[in-house]
Amino acid sequence: MINLFIHLRFLDLIDILLVAIIFYEIYKLVKGTVAFNIFMGIFIIFVVWLVVRSLKMELLGSILGQLFGVGVIAIIIVFQQEVRRFLLMLGSRYRSNRKFALENLFSSQFKLASEASLHAIVDACGQMSENRTGALIVLSRESELREYVETGEIIDAEISSELIKSIFFKNSPLHDGAVIISLNRIKAARCILPVSQKLEISPVLGLRHRAAIGISEQTDALVIVVSEETGHISTSSSGELIENVSREDLLKILESSHK
Fold first, then answer.
1. How confident is the model at residue 84 (pLDDT cuts 50, 70, 90)?
2. Tens digits of per-residue pLDDT, 100-129?
3. Residue among 240, 172, 208, 215 at smallest CA distance from 32
4. Residues pairing with 185 in the sheet
């Protein structure tokens, strides 16, 4: 006689819930990218493998099992950016919840300088928006973005509105690329950023916006874009783009992200 009753323990429910959360987070990471189709293909093969195992089809089950055993390395290579973003998300959430972190004890001495720097950035972006001067500014958070700083011209100067505007002046040799700001200083200009591969990005948006989304997908940075065509200010964080931001809203975004 077949037993139709399924006995679930409390730990089994937790197990199911954790797996559901992991799959949901993976879905959010790959949604709208080329990797989504690959993820769905792997998921379908995994479901087929479970069915084959339940039916005790030994030959096909062993073939699929070997495929998954060897394919783990291939999956890591294919989903390199997504795995990096997932680990970054976990690390960022952990660090943001550390209320008594050692660096927080010394953050107050830099608060005044940071506020002055943020106002300088907002002022520069506002004036470049009025003049329709294209700009791409990356503000680091936990990561100092050293690998991207090294792709550009090292400046290591204090943050000022005039310096930012002079960098992105159309005839300036440094205007083509991104400015990276880290540790309350302009570290480098003309930096090369990774471009997002999201398929859902509007074709109206240019390379600056794609680069802003790309760097925010792979790091915890906050990115500001000033459109050369429209003069609109946009911000990007965690792979999401907010368009047509006012000066006041930009200042609020910067202040909330650098608390």
1. low
2. 444 444 444 334 347 889 999 999 999 999
3. 240
4. 158, 182
Q: Which residues contact 79 (CB under 8 A, 6 or more apart)?
A: 30, 35, 38, 39
Tokens 């946009």 identify what position? 234
pTM of the predicted model as reported, rounded to 2 decimal places:
0.65
Contact (Cβ atoms closer than 8 angstroms) between residue 234 and residue 212: yes
What type of residue is 198? K
Gap between the Cα atoms of 133 and 229, Å rounded: 8
- Number of domains composing the chain: 2
In a domain, 1, yes or no: no
- With a CB cutoff of 8 Å and minimum separation 6, the contacts of 176 are 190
CB 228 within 8 A of CB 133: yes
Q: Which residues, in sequence order, are CB contacts of 203 under 8 Å at separation 6+?
A: none
CATH number of the domain enclosing 245: 3.40.1700.10
Label the pairing between strands 185-191 and 153-158.
antiparallel
Distance (Å, whole) CA 41 – CA 112: 52
Which candidate, 195, 93, 209, places its Cα nearest to that of 142? 93
